[in-house]
Each structure stands twice: as structure tokens, then as C-alpha cells.
């Protein structure tokens, strides 16, 4: 009796091709339904007391959103400052007096929130973990939420190395946080008047 050996190479090859096709389809679907994320960036993670500014940026990455509804900056899991359709809202009133915020959610692909604390205004309490939250609307008009990773700031140095005051810059920041300008030129003139007057 003669046995005929079946060729399984064709079958196994076709199964392998089918699996690859399915994987590619999943990748395409995942890419087409990928929504924006929010990330946090800091210029320096190690802050030299009285010498290094704190610069924290929450930035929206990606597409497939109808609108950015809000960006929230958190310090040690506590709401600090946010931007929404109602403008900039401070939850940390003490930090508001010694920092500057620059934020916009008008363009869904260029939405951001930036917090700056000049070196002369940095306090030990600024040593903390920071994160950003995104609230948005998807193209199908359903709600969308995203959270960034946390990043830690460490402050080194001694109190006597810190300058006492920021001088006129401190009052400039305070006024800038409470005043709205029509354009950058108007803000520039106002700042120069405060500093050099």
C-alpha cells in the first residue's frame, strides 16, 4: 500500500497570509481612530534655587478631534490652573501672584498651556510632580479625555543664593495675569513701560 504525503505548505502559507492581513487591518483601524493625547514638557527637571526658571508646557498632540474644550495643569494631583472657553482660571491663587500663564485652545491641533515662574519667584513648594489633563470633543461629538504622564521637579541650592525680589518683573507678571491685550505689540509696549519707567 502506498501512502501519499499531503502538501501542507500551501495551506500553512495561506493561513499565515490571512493572519498578516488581519494584523494589518487592525493597525489601520487603530491608526484611523487614534485621538489626540496630551503631553507635558519641562525645560529643566532640576531647578537651581534662585537661578533657574520653571517652564512647564502642556501640549496637545494628534488629530481626530472636533475641539479642545480644556487643558488643566495639576501640581501633586491638585488643580493649579486651566484654560477653557471661559478663559484662564487659577485654582492656586498664591502661585498666580508669582507666575505667568500663556495658553490657547482656539486651534485644536495647536492647543497648549504654558506656566512660567521666574527664578527669583521660585519657592521650595514648587518642588512637586506636575501633570496635564485634556478635555475635548471627538468628531462624532462625544466627550474625550486624556491624561499626561507625571513629571517631577527637584529644587537644589540654598535660600541665601536666591535674590530677594524680581524687582519690576514681579509686578509685571502680576499685572500681565490680570490684563488682556488686543495684540502682542500692545503687550510689548505695556511691559517696556513697566520695566523702564
In short:
The chain is α+β, with helices and mostly antiparallel strands and 197 residues long.
List keywords for this structure.
single chain; 197 residues; alpha+beta; Immunoglobulin-like; four-stranded antiparallel beta sheet; 12 strands; 26% helix; Ig-like domain-containing protein
CATH architecture descriptor name of the domain at 37-166: Sandwich
Put simply, the count of helices is 4
Gyration radius from CA atoms, angstroms: 25 Å
Q: What's the count of strands?
A: 12
Strand content: 35-45%
Q: Distance between termini?
A: 109 Å
The parts where pLDDT drops under 50 for at least 5 residues are: 28-32
CATH topology of the domain at 37-166: Immunoglobulin-like
List the helices and strands and how they pair.
Layout: H1 9-32, E1 37-42, E2 46-48, E3 54-61, E4 65-75, E5 78-84, E6 87-90, H2 93-96, E7 100-104, E8 112-117, E9 129-138, E10 143-147, E11 151-152, E12 154-156, H3 168-178, H4 184-196
Parallel strand pairs: 2-12
Antiparallel strand pairs: 1-3, 3-8, 4-5, 4-9, 5-6, 7-8, 9-10, 9-11
Helix pairs in contact: 3-4
Descriptive report:
This protein is an alpha+beta fold and 197 residues long. Helix content is 26%, strand content 36%. The protein is built from four helices and twelve strands. The chain has helices at 9-32, 93-96, 168-178, 184-196; strands at 37-42, 46-48, 54-61, 65-75, 78-84, 87-90, 100-104, 112-117, 129-138, 143-147, 151-152, 154-156.
